[in-house]
Amino acid sequence: MDALPPINLIKLRDIIGDDPETEQLLLSTFIKSTEESLTLLSNQFPASEQPKYRQLWKGHMHQIKGSALNIGAEYLASLTSEMQDAYDSPLPEMKKMLGEINAELARIKKFIETQN
What we know:
By secondary structure, the protein is mostly helical. The chain has helices spanning 9-16, 20-43, 51-71, 74-85, 91-115.
């Protein structure tokens, strides 16, 4: 995971062209929406079993996966794809998964900062 950059800029630029302004807007929108999803999932993390939370989890993982694919964040897309399917996992595992996604998002943010 750490050997490859968290965002495939070649793929991203193939999609949007060589437009730094659009790239910055897309990346900042991605970070904002992903942080909002993760905050929501963290804040509503249940102390006990709640089927509604599992559907919320599945929907947000799907959303993050699609957004990650759009910006070339291939590892995050792979991670959230697995987690989307793991919506029926035990709660402690789900909490650990949130930590993994937050760690990868931090890596993406650091990468973006070094590109500016």
